[in-house]
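Fold Annotation — chain and its backbone
Next Lines — sequence and tokenised fold

***
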Amino acid sequence: MSEEPTLHSRRALILKFDLPISKTREFWESLKNGKFVTTKCMKCGNVCFPPQSDCPKCMGGEFEWVDLGRDATLITCTHVSVRPPSFTGSDPYIIAIGEFPGGTKVLAWLEGVKREEAMPGMKLRVEGRNSAEGNPFYVFVRA
């Protein structure tokens, strides 16, 4: 069987998108006000992060907002020096997984910590930020 000829593009792909946030608006508003919340399914009690409009465990569609607090413990992290195309304008960075009391795990950038200082067990705090475009996001910092 002969292989079909293929043309390969090496051009950058730029994506522009709008994400509806009506069902997770409470998360973004709380983040602006210094709170870090997520959803808890009213049917089975499953706590989800990121916030979900439908429970991935039981598919229930009713949930309540619960406060995770702002303090977490570093579980693991990785230093990213070879950045994906959409982050080539950024300095190398650290991505971390922090665990909140109750067991919810969250993935976020870790700011203000040198690579050699980032160790499992480190106490973290989550903080809200705004991107250059004005979009909210969150990061971990040393507690």
